[in-house]
Amino acid sequence: DSNFNGDNNHLWLKYGDGTTIDDSTFTIALDLNLMGGAPGSKMSDLATQVTFSNLTDTGKDLHVFQYSDFDLSDNYANDTGTAVNANTIVQSDGGMILTDAVSPTPSKWEIGPYSDIVDSLGNASPTTLGNSGSGMVGDVTYARQWDFTLQPKGGANSSFGFSIDQHITVPDPGTILLLGAGMLGLAGANRRKRRKDQAVGRD
Fold it and tell me: Does domain 11-171 bear CATH number 2.70.98.40?
């Protein structure tokens, strides 16, 4: 809402075989909605709607990918990526939890280390995701794939869209402090134990 009038902004992209808008073959509409959670919830939410529409009199086969690369803490190598199901992927690290849910169900999904997936998407060869990688620990990235046919313009299936809902939960700072204090307590107990063992050894 760039002009604060209460209405969402829309981003429209047109793709075509020619050099003018009149040569466009299909459009992509992108709507983004960023919302903060309730006070004290430590949550935020980004909702995205992507819609493809055919502008021609012939059907078009499309293969569309959503790629995500989030680093949830200073140590990106400790993230965990889990596919709850084909629609929902959860990434977590240090108490921070990112839940990424899509609809409709994608044709394929994959979780993998940076930069395996993005390299595959960027090369000249066709990519088919492998429905694999759930439970990975490291520099987590993930992607979804939708395979569909846009029917000729004006038809019932001349448009196709999918939604992405990403929300993140940040731990309460007090919880982090308590966790840190607990770790310090364990370290102190370990030092005391070593000193006691050393004292016993000297006797």
Answer: yes
Domain ranges of the chain: 11-171, 173-203
Burial classification of residue 126, based on how many CB atoms lie within 10 Å of its CB (0-12 exposed, 13-18 middle, 19 or more buried): exposed
Instruction: Give the DSSP H/E element, type plus range, for residue 22.
Output: none
> Distance (Å, rounded) from C-alpha 93 to C-alpha 76?
8
Distance separating alpha carbons of residues 149 and 196, to the nearest angstrom: 72
The Cα-based distances of 2 to 7, 10, 36 in angstroms read 9, 10, 17
80 CB neighbour count, 10 Å cutoff: 17
Query: How far is CA 173 from each of CA 73, 170, 178, 184, 185, rounded to the nearest angstrom?
Result: 14, 9, 9, 16, 18
**What's the distance, Cα to Cα, between the start and end of the chain in Å?**
75
pLDDT digits over 129-147, tens only? 999 999 999 999 999 999 9
Per-residue pLDDT reduced to its tens digit, 64-119: 999 999 998 878 899 999 999 999 999 999 889 999 999 999 999 999 999 999 99
Residue 170 CA neighbour count, 13 Å, CB half: 14
* One-character DSSP codes across 144-183: EEEEEEEPSTTSTTSEEEEEEEEEEE---HHHHHHHHHHH
Q: What is the helix (H) or strand (E) element at residue 189, kind and residue range?
A: helix 173-202
The answer to whether the predicted template modeling score (pTM) of the entire model surpasses 0.85 is no
